[in-house]
Design goal:
2 copies of one chain form a homodimer. With 283 residues, chain A is an alpha/beta fold. Chain A is 26% helix and 30% strand. Chain A has 2 domains: 52 residues, Spermidine synthase, tetramerisation domain (Spermidine Synthase, Chain: A, domain 2), CATH 2.30.140; 211 residues, Rossmann fold.
Chain lengths: 283, 283
């Protein structure tokens, strides 16, 4: 059956699948200096933000992505005091990062200020920690920001970007990873969203190899459900400077001083053993 | 954007989402005594079977469901010799069950023989163990089969059914669970597909409560990605007669004599701690 025109559909032509959400109305549409942002009110997923026609997030299921982009990396680092989020303009990752009492400074560097300004309006719950005194919001190029950072300054760098096409392309290569490696402390951890384990195994392998060529000692890919992204199954890849990724602060994670809906110490521990699928070579 | 008519779409109106697969052609369409079965050749997901318009399985991603419906339950039981699969006409669960050397008899009881006959043609890899001397295929009513079974006969009963509407409705209630409880041995385990953790928390709770009222000592819900089912995130709920669900044969699972693509001993262990979301009350 064909869906009516009230549905927003994102086809993934390369993999012959599509995901749709039923919209009540379009709340906003804007061409920024970088991309086209649209906001919809859906019938069951709360608000939806798309960029250039690709789903970025919804109220209903963003907790999965934001929890898994932040907590595993922060509980893997022994003392995550200084955290940098590249991209992440919806502020959902920043909010999760700030839940960690060890964090003294959390900087978010998003190239497109409009993503954040629209999130403040349409996703206010994600932005509720933006006034935390430990938070800094910068609207500049993340690649340049990392290049300009002092060596060894950060404990964790989270690359919360769009897909490796368009403005985010420069965030998925060895040169950028090399700058991240330099900007991280000795036990530093880089974590980046790494697409679908079902669709993008080749990309995941390429990312991991580039991270290792850039000097990282170890990489680890965690997978998690993410209903609104292609295939409904997503991943984040961590890269560690000193190879500590399979151990983490398990006791701290088990006694975390905040609630989560998906992340748990047990789930984190399981993620330190990758699914067999990731060892397969695929196109 | 609207998709062209070459796409097969399954809307989930209640949750305002839809999933689509691009089809090359329809290979078969048939109204059986129970339901309408259609088989499509897709562009990227291999063959697709739908029943009454709902996606049942595809070549590409059925491994997730079939591995998670079988291996956790079989590695939780100390000696799974006699296994019953209710439904499961595509034979994918049966194939996974037969990988366990402990299994001496695996009976599949599917009400609609046409599901299996079409799977033999269009999903031959799932049916490749059907001639295993330990396998028995019966095409009768699963509810009656369990009612007629000798008390304590089975070690594991796997309810691999369609959604709790139509022919499968009678597989989701206390009366059926009571018969399963009776047909299982002292350490027996029942496992049933239990829909989406994002969409069907209320159903999951109702199932678990009905299982407990039927006499099961403990229940445990495992979640896993399943791209082609609504929300892309699915679950299986185990019910144990003697409360052994959080322990399992971890060493055997770690040294399993067969390959998997998703299941692992580590992933299994993590599943014994449920995700926080499942404790939430939702409509």
């Amino acid at each position: 059956m064909a869906l009516g025109e009230e549905w927003f559909t994102e086809p993934c032509e390369q993999h012959g699948s599509a995901f749709s959400l039923k919209a009540k109305k379009k709340l906003h549409e804007e061409q920024t200096a970088y991309q086209k942002i649209e906001i919809f009110e859906t019938t069951q997923y709360g608000n939806l933000m798309t960029i250039d026609g690709f789903v970025m997030l919804t109220d209903r299921d963003n907790f999965l992505y934001h929890e898994m982009m932040s907590h595993p990396a922060l509980y893997t680092h022994p003392a995550p005091n200084n955290v940098l989020v590249i991209g992440g303009g919806d502020c959902g990752t920043l909010k999760e990062v700030l839940k960690h009492p060890e964090v003294k400074l959390a900087q978010q560097v998003e190239i497109d200020e409009r993503v954040t300004r629209l999130s403040e309006i349409y996703f206010p719950s994600l932005c509720e920690s933006n006034n935390d005194p430990r938070a800094e919001l910068h609207f500049v190029d993340g690649i340049k920001w990392v290049k300009d950072a002092a060596a060894g300054h950060y404990d964790v760098i989270i690359v919360d970007s769009t897909d490796p096409i368009g403005p985010a392309e420069g965030l998925f290569n060895e040169a950028f990873y090399r700058e991240c490696h330099r900007a991280l402390g000795e036990q530093g951890i880089l974590v980046q969203q790494s697409e679908s384990p079902l669709y993008h195994i080749k990309l995941i392998h390429a990312m991991r190899e580039a991270m290792q060529r850039a000097g990282f000692a170890q990489t680890l890919t965690l997978d998690f459900p993410q209903p609104v992204y292609p295939s409904g199954w997503w991943s984040a890849t961590m890269a560690g400077k000193s190879g500590t990724l399979t151990g983490f602060r398990e006791n701290d994670a088990a006694q975390k001083p905040f609630a989560t809906r998906y992340y748990s110490s047990a789930r984190h521990k399981a993620s330190t053993v990758e699914i067999p699928l990731l060892a397969e070579e695929q196109d």
